[in-house]
Amino acid sequence: MDTQDGQVKAKQTEFRRLRTAAANHLRAPSPSALVNGLRRTGNGYLRLADAVQQAENLDARSITAANRRNAYLHAATVATETLGVDDTVTQELNRRLDNLEPERWTE
Length: 107
What we know:
Number of helices: 5
Oligomer: single chain
Structural class: mainly alpha
Distance between the termini: 59 Å
């Protein structure tokens, strides 16, 4: 009977470890320095910060290339509208967009 109790406890411990690991994996990553910097500049940039955060979250979760691309494209568009094409944030977002894997088309 002690052997079975030990096996049950070992399985419970392993289950808790796996559940915690899964929960940690699903949590969104902490905002990057770019997002934090944008949030500190005031309400005018909150929309842009949220767009960048959404793109980074999708990128971190390895969502499909099309979803990541669309999120960074949206963030780059908002940055261009808010900050202008020559701003370093806009340029960084465009660089990230350019560095994403190209979409693969299948027939």
